[in-house]
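Protocol step 4 of 6.
Sequence for Subunit length determinant protein (Modicisalibacter xianhensis) entered exactly as in the expression construct, tag removed. Do not edit the line below.
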Amino acid sequence: MTPQDNSTYRQHDDEISLVDLATILIRRWKSMAVIFVVVVGLAVIYAFLAPRAYTYSSIYSVAEQSPGSALESPEALVAKAKNLYLGPVTRELLEETGLQALPFGVDIENPEQTLIVVLSSEAGDTNQELVNRVHQGVLDRLMQNQQQLVERRIRSMERQLANARESLAAVRESTSLGAAEVTASLMGRIAGLEANLADITQGEVGRVAVQSLKPAGTSRSLILALGIVLGAILAIIGAFMMQFSSLVRSSLKENG
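Step 5 output, structure tokens:
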């Protein structure tokens, strides 16, 4: 046999056909079944024993100076809540409970084209009380900040209204030629100020740490499906690895 023929023989000898692959899988079906059952079993155990997490959300409607116009932009409130309120609330709670860190995070955002601030956390049932206290602490600070802004705005507008009424009373006693025009202007200003005062609405809490109806994260059905797929893949890989290991041992025995 020429060197070229010998190389061709070795090449054909090393090739594995689909029949060979199928034969390996058939011969190793018991091992494959064990691997598959173990992996799927672990997936089932994890799916049903792993703690279920839920999304807890709180909603705050910002104070308005007129319908659809926020007294303070929701974006500014989100920035304050993240940078000024959340940290102190968290530290107070950690000192009180002795925890090193909260077992959940707090996301604060303003949905687009809305006048609300939403706080959300993903946590298990056992941490619901902690979530409620953190959210309530942040909401209380938001309410206090907004209340101060509303009171300042009302006081400012009441002063303007009082001044306008005093000016109107003085103009009505005047006999000047332009008194009528000034009177009309002042009455319009007074009406506008009164309307603006009536339009001011306080911020309010819509809900505090309300639990989602469905668990958050990966569902049990998806975990089971992934377990089945992973079990099948590992079973096939395991069968080939066992076959390879068997061939290596046989080769070592022959050469030994």
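Step 6, annotate. The mean pLDDT is 87.
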